[in-house]
TrEMBL record:
Residues 76-245 form the Ribosomal RNA adenine methylase transferase N-terminal domain. This is rRNA adenine N(6)-methyltransferase. The keyword Thylakoid does not apply. The lineage of its organism: Eukaryota, Viridiplantae, Streptophyta, Embryophyta, Tracheophyta. It comes from Camelina sativa. Residues 31-52 are annotated as: Disordered. It comes from the Eukaryota. S-adenosyl-L-methionine binds at H69, L71, G96, E117, D145, N160. Belongs to the class I-like SAM-binding methyltransferase superfamily. rRNA adenine N(6)-methyltransferase family. InterPro entries: KsgA/Erm (IPR001737), rRNA_Ade_Mease_Trfase_CS (IPR020596), rRNA_Ade_methylase_Trfase_N (IPR020598), rRNA_adenine_dimethylase (IPR011530), SAM-dependent_MTases_sf (IPR029063).
Amino acid sequence: MILRLKNQTLGKLNPTRSYLSYLVLRRDSHSQIRTKPDHDRRRREYEGSEKSKKKEHDGLFLCKSKGQHLLTNTRILDAIVRSSDIRPTDTVLEIGPGTGNLTMKLLEASQNVVAVELDKRMVEILRKRVSDNGFADKLTIIQKDVLKTEFPQFDLVVANIPYNISSPLVAKLVYGSNTFRSATLLLQKEFSRRLLANSGDSDFNRLAVNVKLVADVKFVMDVSKREFVPPPKVDSSVVMITPKEVKPDVNVQEWLAFTRTCFGNKNKTLGSMFRQKKKVMELLSLSAGRNGSKVGMECGDGEFDTDVEDEGGRDNVLCMDTDASMFKERVVGLLRTHGFEEKRPSKLSHGELLHLLSLFNQAGIFFHDITSLPMDLHE
Ligand SMILES: C[S@@+](CC[C@H](N)C(=O)[O-])C[C@H]1O[C@@H](n2cnc3c(N)ncnc32)[C@H](O)[C@@H]1O
């Protein structure tokens, strides 16, 4: 039975792809994949065989570095689609469709699906599967790295994404230029817990503060690692991210750099964080660059030693020391005057953080290095 179906589905594809196609076909038959003894035994036998090793070596096997863990439980796939609130008129963006287990369900529920997939082998399998099921007209496949893809217009995102790109991908969605209703994403459980943390919680963190500035995040369900083939090392969760209708008027790069500074050690008070010599020197140089001049004022004795070596020798070192010392007093003075010195970043609301950033900027103190571009949310 399986062999016959394999031949039907694979067509001209290399027969050494049999294990992958087995996974595809099991989904098409709408039976729930068995991860229990029978299936596990087949997989172990297959993976242990010379053929499998060769395939893995040739890059034809499911590839962990690309996060190729296929979700195989039909009940869970259905639950994801139900929770994602798809309307029949929607264009759904799917990131990493793989062999199409989720794609088939999305095609049934929506008007169109745009799927972005990096792996050419997956694209071939997906294209054939979708066309065999009469959905070819509804699917657009973009074979590309999603992080380098300019998205066409879409209404919703629904995806089981590769976990190694979770942070830049969520950043691209919530801070990108596309307008969409929501993104229902299957993520590593630990990542989703960090995303769900709220201001005031001890685990409130930079990822959550950045995403929640512009979106709401709702827990949908946990998914065990046993539901994937091959099983990843970690469990997963589904969350729904809904962009806020009204977003704060703030320079995004400045905000991200500010939260990187504040949440560098979220358990320290802001006062002790902004007294650190390294931090002061960093801010001094960024702010001086942005203001087009030095931020400090006069030379004199200072409390910092610096490693700066230039033609001016010791006099310049002293100058830098003094600049830094005066600059530190300005920063800490601002925190003190506005009641932030003894506060911890994880206990501050978005309103308070935005207020603090605007106080800094008004005082000519800036956080963003205009020479660096990458948008990262939590590193
Ligand atoms: C976790 S699998 C999900 C497969 C399928 N959606 C499922 O649920 O069974 C992730 C998929 O994303 C693809 N992928 C990995 N990195 C990618 C990238 N940077 N851009 C687009 N697709 C990527 C992988 O090839 C793989 O097919």
